[in-house]
Design a protein that fits this description.
Largest sheet: 8 strands, antiparallel
Shape: globular
Helix content: 25-40%
Structural class: alpha+beta
Oligomer: single chain
Radius of gyration: 21 Å
Number of helices: 12
Strand content: 25-35%
Number of strands: 17
Distance between the termini: 24 Å
C-alpha cells in the first residue's frame, strides 16, 4: 500500500505507476467489484488548512477524518449540512471516514431532501489526474463561477477521474432544536403518502424516513423539523394538523428527555442504515420516484427495507446473490450494490449516451486507465 504524505508525492506515485491503482480513502467502504492494482491511500494527506467560520467555509486535505472536521465545526456551532453517512456499521469495516472519500462518493444523508447533496456544498477541489498532473478548480467562496466546474465533476466520480488532495466546502450553522413527528404502524404506501405531504408543506421538513422495522421492531415513520425551539414547536403542531388524515403522531423534541427517535441517535440510525447492519444478506441502495417505491418493493424479494428522502431512496436487504437490479424491470431509477458476496456489477448500467460521455471524460482525465479501472463500468 502506498500512503503519500504530500500532494507532490501522490502526483509522483500516479505519474510513475505502470499498473492500475486502487484508490482508497479511510478504508470504510468496500469497492465491489474491487478494482485491480496496488492500493494508493490518501490518509497521509490530512489536516484542516483553512477554516473561516464567518465565511461559512472550511478547507481540508482529502485524508482528513470527517470526525476531525465535525469537531472543529461544532466548536463554532456549525455543521456539514449534507449529513454524510458512516458506512462502517453497515459494512462491518474499520478505518476512518475521510473528507476525500465522502466527496469522491458524493455521500449525502437524510438532510439532502432539504439542503441538497454533498456536491452542492463543494466550492473547490485540488486533485491529481491519471497523468500525475495536479489540477485546481473552484475557489473558497460561493461566488467563484469561473471556468469549468470540475469540482462538481469530481464529486461522485469515485476516484476514476482523479485523486482528490484538498476540498473546500461551504458549511452551515447548527440548529438549536430538533422536532420529530413519529407515526407508528403505517404501511409503506401510507408512510410515503404522509412523507410526501410533509415535504410538500411550507414547514421546512429536513428529514422524512420510514423504517420497516424500526428500532423497537415495529414500522415507524419519522418526519424531522429543525430550527429555533419556538419555531420548531409551532411548525410541528401545524404539520401535525396538516397530516391528520395520516394518523396522530407522537411529537418528540431534542430538548426533552432523549428517546430512540427524537434526537441525534434516531437520525444516526437512519443515516447509517443501522437497522440492516447486523442482518445476513446483500444490501442494495435504490433511487426511484417516491410514487413508485412502495409498489416496487412489493415485487422484490426483500427481507427488510428502509425508506429515506421521502421514499426516493430505498435501502433493501435481500437474500445473498439476489439480482435486485434485474428484478426492477422497467421501473425508472437505478440500483447500487453496496454489500454482497455475489459477482454482480456495483453500479447500474449507464444509458448509451451517458456511457459515451463518461468514457470521453475518463479518456481526458485518465488516458492510461489506471485509476480504479472498471469500477463504474
Amino acid at each position: 500500500m502506498m500512503i503519500p504524505d504530500t500532494e507532490d508525492a501522490l502526483a509522483t506515485a500516479i505519474r510513475d505507476a505502470t499498473s492500475p491503482l486502487r484508490i482508497q480513502g479511510g478504508g470504510t467502504r468496500h469497492l465491489q467489484p474491487a478494482p485491480d492494482g496496488d492500493t494508493l491511500c490518501t490518509s497521509g494527506l490530512s489536516g484542516i488548512t483553512l477554516y473561516d467560520p464567518g465565511a461559512l467555509t472550511i478547507v481540508a486535505k482529502a485524508g482528513t477524518p470527517v470526525a476531525e472536521i465535525e469537531k472543529a465545526l461544532a466548536a463554532e456551532n456549525q455543521r456539514l449540512a449534507f449529513e454524510p453517512m458512516d458506512h462502517r456499521g453497515l459494512l462491518g469495516t474499520q478505518g476512518e471516514p475521510t473528507l476525500g472519500g465522502v466527496v469522491a462518493a458524493n455521500v449525502s444523508g437524510p438532510r439532502r431532501v432539504a439542503v441538497g447533496a454533498c456536491r452542492d456544498f463543494v466550492l473547490g477541489v485540488r486533485f491529481v489526474d491519471g497523468n500525475g498532473t495536479i489540477i485546481k478548480n473552484g475557489g473558497r467562496v460561493m461566488k467563484n463561477v469561473t471556468g469549468y466546474d470540475l469540482a462538481k465533476l469530481m464529486t461522485g466520480s469515485h476516484g476514476t477521474l482523479g485523486v482528490l488532495t484538498e476540498v473546500a466546502l461551504k458549511v452551515l450553522p447548527d440548529v438549536a432544536c430538533t422536532g420529530v413527528l413519529l407515526f407508528e404502524g403505517l404501511s409503506d404506501a401510507q408512510a410515503i403518502a404522509a412523507m410526501s405531504a410533509a415535504l410538500g408543506s411550507p414547514f421546512e421538513v429536513t428529514g422524512a424516513a420510514h423504517l420497516a422495522p424500526g428500532i423497537d421492531g415495529q414500522p415507524v415513520t419519522m418526519i424531522r423539523i429543525e430550527g429555533f425551539a419556538k419555531s420548531v414547536r409551532y411548525r410541528a403542531e401545524q404539520l401535525t394538523a396538516k397530516l391528520a388524515d395520516h394518523g396522530k403522531p407522537v411529537l418528540q423534541f431534542s430538548d426533552q428527555t432523549d428517546t430512540p427517535y427524537s434526537t441525534d441517535r434516531g437520525w444516526t440510525h437512519v443515516r447509517d442504515v443501522l437497522g440492516l447492519a447486523q442482518a445476513d444478506g446483500d444490501i442494495w441502495r435504490l433511487s426511484v420516484k417516491p410514487s413508485d417505491a412502495a409498489a416496487l418493493v412489493t415485487r422484490l424479494e426483500t427481507r427488510a427495507v428502509q425508506y429515506d428522502w421521502g421514499g426516493g431512496l430505498i435501502w433493501a436487504l435481500t437474500p445473498p446473490g439476489y439480482d435486485l437490479r434485474g428484478a426492477m424491470g422497467d421501473t425508472p431509477g437505478h440500483a447500487t450494490l453496496i454489500r454482497s458476496s455475489a459477482d454482480l456489477p456495483r453500479f447500474h448500467p449507464e444509458p448509451a449516451a451517458i456511457a459515451t460521455l463518461n468514457a470521453g471524460l475518463r479518456q481526458r482525465f485518465d488516458p492510461r486507465n489506471i485509476l480504479n479501472p472498471g469500477l463504474m463500468n
